[in-house]
Amino acid sequence: MVIGICGSIGAIIMADRFYFDQTILNRASDMRLDDPWQIGSNKFKPVFIPIWNDKSLIFEKDIPQAVILEQGEGQWFAENACQIVFLGIKGSNIFYGTDISHIENLADVPLPTKTLFEDLRRLATSIEPEEAGYLAYARALIYWNRSHLYCGRCGSPTESKKSGHERHCTGKDCKRVHFPRTDPAVIMLVTHPTKDKCLLGHNKRFKGLRFSTIAGFVEPGESLEHAVAREVKEETGIEVCDITYKASQPWPFPASIMVGFRAKGTSTKITCLDEELIEARWFHRDEVRDFAENQDILPPSQFSISRWLIDCWLQEEDPRIT
Fold first, then answer.
1. This prediction's pTM
2. Cα–Cα distance, 16 to 22 (Å, whole number)
3. Is the dihedral of CA 154, 139, 15, 297 positive or negative?
4. pLDDT tens per residue, the chain (322 residues)?
5. Cis peptide before 254, with omega less than 30 degrees from 0?
6. Using H for helix, E for strand and C for coil, what is the string for the chain?
């Protein structure tokens, strides 16, 4: 059965803004042991989040619901998982992610009735936000473990330690300790230097008429602010100033965090210089308001920090009005 995990999030900063950021488990890093089954074994009731090939187990309903299994129904997953990771505790429950990606035929798995494995990203905001945060956390940590079975320095096998939060190289002359990594990406809303407009781009991966904010990964040896200026310049030819941090959003697809900024253009001529964007344009605030009524043009509301940056700008007063 699915357990009830909803709770107060009033103390969580920004919890009502972005998807995947409402994980309110106590991650209890001091409790992470090499054997995850020894963690608080007499104090907490174990519950399990199954993952298969980066997909999460979902109840097939009009509104999809996360499957988080109590010990009885989850026992098969606990006994047959190729990887167990400790996620944290909440109340009397201790949460584990269980990876069954080694199983090729799901017909061999005793799945609960009317459930299936689905891509969490494809489900967008249909999953209750707190549950989505738990699924995303389990997915990301299991993905990291499965992607680091061998040492990147010497090639020797690694073994899981600290309940899935470290992997240790088994090479006698290496013994490197590997930690889960998160790749930072900057995402920014750029405003026009003189007009009430913002800069949006159409990425070659977008379907239909979708326009969104400019984004890109941070490169080695570069600050977040430098990454903002570089990405905007590389993708659109626009120079920017007044780069200001706004907020961040976990984006475990597969292992990123989106760091949101505002910036002001100092030039206006758009030239799409690389292959990422098919088109970029300056859009007037009224145009973007009209787009907001059509979910096929802007990013979905309450899903990504991109849309939040756009909506915040739309709610501001036209700077030319006094």
1. 0.85
2. 8
3. positive
4. 344 333 332 222 333 467 787 777 899 999 998 888 777 667 899 999 999 999 999 998 888 899 999 988 999 999 999 999 999 999 999 999 999 999 999 998 999 999 999 999 888 678 888 888 899 999 999 999 999 999 999 999 999 999 999 999 999 999 999 999 999 999 999 999 999 999 999 888 777 678 899 999 999 999 999 999 999 999 999 999 999 999 999 998 888 999 999 999 999 999 998 788 889 999 999 999 988 877 678 887 667 899 899 999 998 865 554 4
5. yes
6. CECCCCCCCCCCCCCCCCCCCCCCCECCHHHCCCCHHHCCCCCCEEEEEEEECCEEEEECCCCCEECCEEHHHHHHHHHHCCEEEEEEEECCEEEEEEECCCCCCHHHCCCCCCEEEECCCCCHHHCCHHHHHHHHHHHHHHHHHHHCCECCCCCCEEEEEHHHCEEEECCCCCCCEECCCCEEEEEEEEECCCCCEEEEEEECCCCCCCCECEEEECCCCCCHHHHHHHHHHHHHCCCEEEEEEEEEEEECCCCEEEEEEEEEECCCCCCCCCCCEEEEEEEEHHHHHHHHCCCCCCCCCCCCHHHHHHHHHHHCCCCCCC
> What are the tokens at 113?
């009735």
